[in-house]
Amino acid sequence: MKVLYRKLRRGIWSNRGQFFAMALVITIGISLYVAMSNTFSNLGYAQESFYNDNNFADHYFHVVHAPEAVAKQIASIPGVEKVTARIQQDVAVIKADGTRASARLTSYPLPLAEQVNSVALKQGRLFEAYPANGGAEALVDPSYLQANGLNLGENVEIIAEGRQIPLTVVGTAIGPEFVYAIKDLSSMVPDPKTFGIFMIPLNQAQEAFNLPGQINQILVVFTPGADTEAIISHIQDLLSPYGNLASYPRKDQLSHSLLDAELTSGRIMARFFPIIFLAIAAGIQIVLLRRMVRMQRLQIGIMKGLGFSNAAVLFHYSSYALAVCMIGALCGSVLGLLFSQSLNQLYATYFNLPNVEGYHYQVITYSFLLAAAVGMVAGLSGSAPIVNINPAESMRSQPPSKSAHNILERLPSLWQSLSPLWKMSFRSVARNRMRTLVTVGGVVAAVSLLLISFFMNDAIDYMMKQYYQKEMLYDYMVRFDQPVRSSELLAISRMDGVNQVEAFIEIPVKIHYNGRTVEDAVNGQAEGNRLKTPFDSEGNPMAIPEQGIILGEITARKLGAEPGDLITVETTLNRGEPIITELTVVSINRQLLGSVCYTSLAQANRLLHEADVVSGCMLLVDPGHSSTIEAQLSDITGINSIASRQKEIDNITSLLDSSMLFVGIMIFFSLILGLAIIYNSIVMSYNERKKELASLLTMGFTHTEVSGLMLKDTLIQAVPGLIIGLPTGRWLAVVYISSVSTDMFTFPVIISPVSYVLSLLVGLGFVLAGYWLATRGLSSLDMIEMSKYVD
Amino acid sequence: MAKEILVHLQDVTKTYIMGEVSVEALKATSLDILAGEVLVILGPSGSGKSTLLNLIGGMDRLTSGELFFRQQALHSASNSELTQYRRDHIGFVFQFYNLISDLTSYENVELAASLVDDPLSSAEVLEQVGLQERLDHFPAQLSGGEQQRISIARAIVKRPLILLCDEPTGALDYQTGKTILELLLEVNLRHGSTVVIVTHNAAIGAIGDRVIRMSSGRIAEIQINASRATPEGIEW
């Protein structure tokens, strides 16, 4: 058997170009599998253990405010394992340079360890309820500390109840509810410069907000197997005297839902992309082995004649595929683990999770098993014709390849107009059906992947354009701590450099319809506002109705509500009693992230039984005055947050660089796939037709004409592949987006014409490059040797 | 009237370098090939007969000496000039036919016809070789003899001045071999092409105007036949 091993080694060496191309495709497939599976396993494990270690809540209840003691009542309900009652409130932060940020001030009863949604200390020490030297201590999230150049021991200044309160930073910590730390769904990515998580003891929060002995949130962990629905409704009954503002399960918690969406899409990609590469590699191997078996018919006959069994010969030829797959698995695993390291780091910049690291031996094991399975399937099906080779027959020379009339010949006028060289190409492509199928399939896959890669770029582009050039046209958005009279805006409009001020009000609400309830926000826009515009599903801007409401698409879907329906809106502002109003749905708007319902400022005021209140405004300013205006706004204590559109764009753009790297890698891999398939297909065709090509040269055809024949072969297969690849790529993008869409995130598949053109051009590029690589040997084709060559 | 000299070889040698060994396949050979003659080159394997044929056909380059086609110096011609020479003046017939498997009989002939400005009619040529009923057949559907006829049709459709045949009957049975030789002589008569037949089969020498016997890379003997025998009349 040593001899067979040597034959195997030499066989691979003499076809090294083709085997190398295949090993490369398998390497890419396996490396994608390993990189993504390993990273998403890391992310999944990190999520699970972080949640367990810190008692991540199963359910959240928000109230206006309730006595702390209500926690004990809830804890006594059977099925409730843990309860934490706390205060959580978004506050304005005044930074050392006078500019504004905002923080989610979250409080914790002590001792911390057993609390629901406890935190993990990263640096420094835990806060104390009553620090020895007075004042209040806080933990902040590490990203905020780093982004703002803070040091432990320094103060952060928050505004609560109109007072500026210093908090001493004693450490950094992360919590399971802040893994993806964004303020709300309207922020696409974390912006730690302007939004942080501040953690303080409950008693300090009660003091800051002037709520002694009170809380505004209840977090619950259920015992496994508990009847959660009954418990939730029981707790809601208990809390109803305190103003039930919101109640939602873990799956609707902002950070968790976004992390889960990332894991879901990651796990889909970890299967989807490798399968494409491995399937194409298997296809090429089958075709290559079949050809090898045909060419080595005599050798196989001799081996069988010598007494090797069918199984032994079959195994020998299968081991070509197996060997290539194992080489691919080895290189792919190493490369995949390296990619995984970078991906881990990439995720670490987005997600505050401890220990997103490590190598999972089972991922490596699976990658080898996967490669072995591909190798065995491709090997056995490629070598299957061995069984039918009869030793005696194999010694006879083979008749010319059987060609046949093809489908194009049914159009005689077209067929007759073709030159004999085109006829040769069409017949050759039709005769080698399996090879043609694999080649066309490979080109389709490569072009679809290219289009999907470009689409990812388009998606980000579209989102940025839609968001920042169509929906939001303001320079600054200012939000107040609580609704104020619209006359308060006068001071802002009089600032130097402020060109336009548009008022709005945001009211948290519950919308009821048909027995269903959705928590949402109503955005009331003043008449004539043009700095924030809703868009319909067709991408057209919508006018804000004076009466009635424009529902967000996701909310409308959840409620099953349509234009014309009468819905019930219940305000959940954390002051006063909820107010219930019936409104007619005027139309539905599409929001890429989250959901916003629009109405007029006047109608929104009526929801609150008010006449003239606003909760914020949008500004257009002279670019030269930006920083002075920002500084002046920061001095107004009643302002909760100041969002700069330009800073948001800059932040997103800086984070997108890493995504662009991923897109770049995918384009590169698609190119390799396309190149490998075209190269292999042409080399196979070239090797099979060497004799015919030599005979064309002998007849007097030039080298250019003969290589033109090979180009014709290539184009006949590649052009349909390139064309079919475009709709296939679009279809895959639709499948991909619908499989990763969630309640909070949906996306229209909009692919720019440039992306189609680029995919075609890059596709044509790999076709021509593969053709060039494969036909370099043509100039050294030996006419004399080939003219005597017997099949 | 003296026949025109189509090809003139003067002290032509051909040496192949095979690894560290150099093999002198053709040694200082001089020869004239005349328009319209049937020339049979005889010799055992390795005698240099195929090398000579390949040099005449512009398929290979000589190592030293001079080779002219009419006034054109083929020994110093560029690759594209050699290609043009093969295209315009040479027809090849091989032992193993070398047909294009993806083209029908008719299309194989058309392929060659497409190379020149004024070819013969493909259909007529196929009729001449007796395959008018098999125009739409692929090589795999034809017998060896039929494939060789297609290969002759393909060679003559270009109206070549010289038809070079390398062991044209080598892969065929006795009777089929004879019909192929008859066809070659008919081509010579009908189209006036010079026919050069390379073979190891000495009996075939009788059908030529001249017979060249080769041995160890040299022309050992040139024999002029007073009259050409018919293929029917020879035995092997």
Topology:
The complex is a heterodimer of chains A (791) and B (236).
Chain A: H1 2-14, H2 16-53, E1 59-67, H3 70-75, E2 80-86, E3 88-94, E4 100-108, E5 120-124, E6 137-140, H4 142-147, E7 155-160, E8 163-174, E9 195-201, H5 202-208, E10 214-222, H6 228-239, E11 244-249, H7 254-295, H8 297-306, H9 310-350, H10 361-383, H11 391-394, H12 412-416, H13 420-431, H14 433-471, E12 476-485, H15 489-493, E13 498-513, E14 516-525, E15 549-552, H16 553-559, E16 566-571, E17 580-589, E18 597-600, H17 601-607, E19 613-621, H18 626-634, E20 639-644, H19 645-699, H20 703-740, H21 753-774, H22 783-788
Parallel strand pairs in A: 4-9, 6-8, 14-18, 15-17
Antiparallel strand pairs in A: 1-10, 1-11, 2-10, 3-4, 3-7, 5-8, 6-9, 7-8, 12-19, 12-20, 13-14, 13-16, 13-19, 16-17
Helix pairs in contact in A: 1-9, 2-7, 2-9, 2-10, 2-19, 7-9, 7-10, 7-14, 7-19, 9-10, 13-20, 14-19, 14-20, 14-21, 19-20, 19-21, 20-21
Chain B: E1 5-18, E2 21-34, E3 38-42, H1 49-56, E4 64-69, E5 72-73, H2 79-89, E6 90-93, H3 105-113, H4 122-128, H5 144-156, E7 162-166, H6 174-191, E8 194-199, E9 210-215, E10 218-224
Parallel strand pairs in B: 3-8, 3-9, 6-7, 7-8
Antiparallel strand pairs in B: 1-2, 1-4, 4-5, 9-10
Helix pairs in contact in B: 3-4, 3-5, 4-5, 5-6
